[in-house]
Amino acid sequence: MSSIVVNKVAYELTNEPKHGVVRRIRKERQNSIKEFLSLFTDGFDIEPSKAETEEQKKLDMSANLDKEISRLLKEHPNEAVEFGESEAEFNIRATISLTANHYFVEEDFDEMTEKEITETFEKCKEVLGGDVNHFFE
User: Which of 17, 38, 68, 119 could pair covalently with 98 via S-S, beta carbons 3.0-4.6 A apart?
Assistant: First the structure.
């Protein structure tokens, strides 16, 4: 099996991450999405003129999160760009975390070059059989 080095520590790669790492990654993604959606619950709702019904003016935090996000991204393109950048960074870090069987935070990659991060990410995707999104399908 191959390995990667992050912060001078070598990690053996696996395509079967431990439950604790999987649970932390899943929880972090859910919290990130809920935090994004919460931007729209306090006076920053979908514009009333663009909502067809009263129901569409409100966010349903218990609804399908992907559906709610899609709806918001159409209405708020600037926030969509910011959320997209955040999701791209999460995708890289989560994929590496799953494959290394170690939960990494953003700062763990501060000393790595972009090229090193990209190479590490590609290597991890190869071992995992895809990125974090593929893993959770």
Answer: 17
Report whether 117 contacts 89 (CB < 8 A): no
How many helices (DSSP H) and strands (DSSP E) are in the chain? 6, 2
Taking CA atoms, 28 is separated from 23, 31, 32, 60, 121, in Å, by 9, 5, 6, 20, 19
**Type of residue at 114:** E
From CA 10, how far away is CA 3, in angstroms rounded?
A: 6
Place of tokens 């991204």: 73
What is the total count of domains within the chain? 1
Instruction: Identify the residue with better confidence: 30 or 76.
Output: 30
Q: Is 11 helix (H, G, I), strand (E, B) or coil?
A: strand
Distance CA 51, CA 45 (A): 10
For tokens 């979908």, what's the residue? 46
Q: What is the mean pLDDT of residues 31-47?
A: 68
Q: Which two tokens stand for residue 122?
A: 């590609």
What is the span of the domain harbouring residue 99?
A: 3-135
